[in-house]
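Marked as duplicate of an earlier ticket. Keeping the data here for the record.
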Amino acid sequence: MIKKIFSILFALFIATSVQAESRLDVIKKSGELRVGTTGDWDPMSMKDPATNKYKGFDIDVMNELAKDLGVKVTFVPAEWKTIVAGITANRYDISTSVTKTPKRAEVAGFTATYYKYGTVPLVLKKNLKKFPTWDSLNNKKVTIATTLGTSQEEKAKEFFPKSKLRSIEAPARDFQEVLAGRADGNITSSLEANKLVVKYPQLAIVPDGGKNPAFLAMMVPKGDKTWNEYVSKWIKRKQSSGFFMTLEAKYNLKSL
């Protein structure tokens, strides 16, 4: 009986010790930083289908983080609808940037913020007279597309309560519904919108300004204070050194 109790207590001690080990320690021991990323958010994370390699603002950030840690980086494919689950299931140690939301914060940790953006609607340029404002899109005859699992999916319910909302599952994207004429508009980050209107000249940003400023940060396991503090302090050091400013210039970005 005593041996059985001792075995149970020892097992609990081992489990607690393993659970208490920070991701930072695991990363340094393994020599690998696993990064979850969707690869479909221009210019933050884009996957080249020809090479299966990732590029973008966040990819540069993660390569720099891995370099400073002295480890290799491995990018793990993720989707917006499951990117939070990837953190809780230990499929990766950290994610590329996502918008901080209360719902996500219930189960995942967030590092310090390193980018602020606005939310804007996109419509076909030929329809700008028909949809000159946010309010003009809030209509029961209007269909608004969003990408499943993104923060914009929730915002659409707030901004367009009268409209028909259509969630599009990756790898398809919401703006493609607008291009195809299956939706009147979509909403996305101002940083992506500015890239899309250049790539697709038939799209235009509804010009009455961005709403609901949002903050980007990396997701890490909730409760791992050591790993979160390490990355957050690293972000602040890189901000002070001008690293992020250099990247913003490289990708022609401007934080709000």
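See parent ticket for discussion. DSSP finds eleven helices and 15 strands in the chain.
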